[in-house]
Amino acid sequence: MKFTPEHEQIADTVRKFVAKELNPHVPEWEAAQEFPSHEVFKKLGDLGLLGIKYPTEYGGMGLDFSYSMVMAEALGDCTCGGVPMAIGVQTDMATPALARFGSDELRREYLAPTIAGDYVACLGVSEAGGGSDVAAAKTSARKEGSDYVINGSKMWITNGLKADWCCLLANTSEGSPHRNKSLIVVPMDAPGITKQKIRKIGMDSSDTAQLFFDNVRVPQRNLIGQEGMGFTFQMLQFQEERLWGAASSLRGLDRIIDSTIEYTRQRQAFGKSILDNQVVHFRLAELRTEVEALRALTYRAVEMYVSGKDVTKLASMAKLKCGRLSREVADACLQYWGGMGFTWDNPVSQAYRDSRLVSIGGGADEVMLGIICKLEGTLPKVAK
């Protein structure tokens, strides 16, 4: 990756925003199990940070995905995972298909205010019975007059309680599960939508909900792109989601290693610092090397993506490595903090709680392995 002054300017702006507007409030937001997303997103929108890669005619900067990656990495300075994840849903998970395939009318109605920070967006793909199996989604949208009538439910929806609209994946016809789905913009104040908060073991400050749709009517003009292309569009959205996820983990991993080095250098046991033990400083060196390897993989994947190449395999590798390394770093570093690492307010225990989701959300590790094996030609063929 060749970073321009514009890359550095965006990174610096994000880091300053995190230090001033996010980190001082993290303890309060974690305790409340939510953060004021409309307030925070409006401030981000005023800085132009919610539409970095989106067209200028809708309020974006018109830059390429490498600039979004820089923002994601800088958000790693945040001392919790929940708020950056919620921001990532807004910028790189719920909006790519709308920006790329939505009608001009739909983009002006929903994308523009989302980029401005006036709307909060969520992505409705996962369901309780399917999880990472996107093709198994059961939520339906049948045509009635000029509307879609939506029935079903969605699970584990980040921003689900406060979102103004949802990029919803629903079955719009019978037939192949890969060809019967569509993405539809659903306003979250539509009659028939109910929400239930989900309490999690980490990512506390990010509101997460189960959504229920009971004969919810939306105009058919809210369809994103072509009917039946929803599965394909969502697979494309996943590429940016997975690259964003890998990039957003990097500075957080470095930060945990840095804080562990500082703590173990000061902490004394048996006449010397914990860091002086070879098992400790060697292990931290190994972990730092792994982070740099993930950074190199992520940068390479983003560079290829920006140049228009298919990065399905590399994005899946980055997502897989990110999830596993996030768990490994948090677990190893917590061990070196001893009993202090097991206290709730410790930065390492925060990372330990938050990092576990990374191997599940956006496609579980096992799904990433399946994708990689398929593209490697090593996945066994299923007998018909």
User: Can you summarize the main beta sheet?
Assistant: 4 strands, antiparallel
Rg, alpha carbons? 21 Å
Low-pLDDT stretches are none
**Mean pLDDT over the full residue set:** 96
Q: How many H/I helices?
A: 12
N- to C-terminal separation? Answer: 44 Å
Structural class by helix and strand composition: alpha+beta
Strand count:
9
What is the percent of helical residues? 40-55%
Strand order of the largest sheet: 2-3-7-6
SSE order in H/E notation? Answer: HHHHHHHEEEEEEEHEEHHHH
Report strand %. Answer: 5-15%
- Shape, principal axes of CA atoms: globular
Short key terms for the protein model shown above:
384 residues; alpha+beta; 4-stranded antiparallel beta sheet; 3-stranded mixed beta sheet; 12 helices; 9 strands; 49% helix
Overall description:
With 384 residues, the chain is of the alpha+beta class. Helix content is 49%, strand content 15%. The chain contains 12 helices and 9 strands. The protein has helices at residues 5-22, 26-32, 37-46, 65-74, 82-93, 96-101, 104-116, 230-266, 278-306, 312-337, 347-355, 365-376; strands spanning 121-124, 140-144, 147-158, 165-171, 181-187, 193-197, 208-219, 268-269, 272-273. The strands form 3 sheets. A 4-stranded antiparallel β-sheet has the order 2-3-7-6, with helices on one face. β2 (140-144) and β3 (147-158) form a beta hairpin. α9 packs antiparallel against α10 (312-337). The longest helix is centred in the middle third of the chain and has 37 residues, at 230-266. The N and C termini lie far apart (44 Å). The mean pLDDT is 96.
